[in-house]
């Protein structure tokens, strides 16, 4: 399926997950870590352990509310990197 999405959109999809869900539901598969950006959800003061295959998270959702009434997220990169992900 990952290759089908690449064919359709000319980019690999971002995977949004928690480490516990990924471990329980995929057996902690490392299959996507080298191709797909990771958006990890962990409501804590640190990002914690990542799923197998990823050495860093592209995005980190650290809260579901805060100063603004929506998710609180951090991008691990600069504006040019964010634009590359958005544009493909």
Automatic annotation (TrEMBL):
GO terms for biological process: carbohydrate catabolic process; cell wall macromolecule catabolic process; peptidoglycan catabolic process. PANTHER family: LYSOZYME. The lineage of its organism: Eukaryota, Fungi, Dikarya, Basidiomycota, Agaricomycotina. SUPFAM superfamilies: (Trans)glycosidases. Pfam families: Glyco_hydro_25. Belongs to the glycosyl hydrolase 25 family. GO terms for molecular function: lysozyme activity. InterPro entries: GH (IPR017853), Glyco_hydro_25 (IPR002053). It comes from Cerrena zonata. This is Uncharacterized protein.
């Amino acid at each position: 399926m990952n290759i089908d999405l690449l064919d359709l959109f000319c980019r690999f999809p971002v995977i949004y997950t928690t480490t516990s869900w990924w471990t329980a539901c995929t057996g902690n598969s490392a299959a996507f870590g080298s191709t797909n950006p990771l958006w990890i959800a962990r409501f804590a003061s640190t990002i914690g352990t990542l799923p197998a295959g990823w050495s860093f998270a592209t995005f980190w959702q650290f809260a579901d509310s805060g100063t603004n009434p929506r998710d609180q997220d951090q991008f691990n990169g600069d504006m040019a990197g964010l634009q590359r992900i958005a544009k493909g």
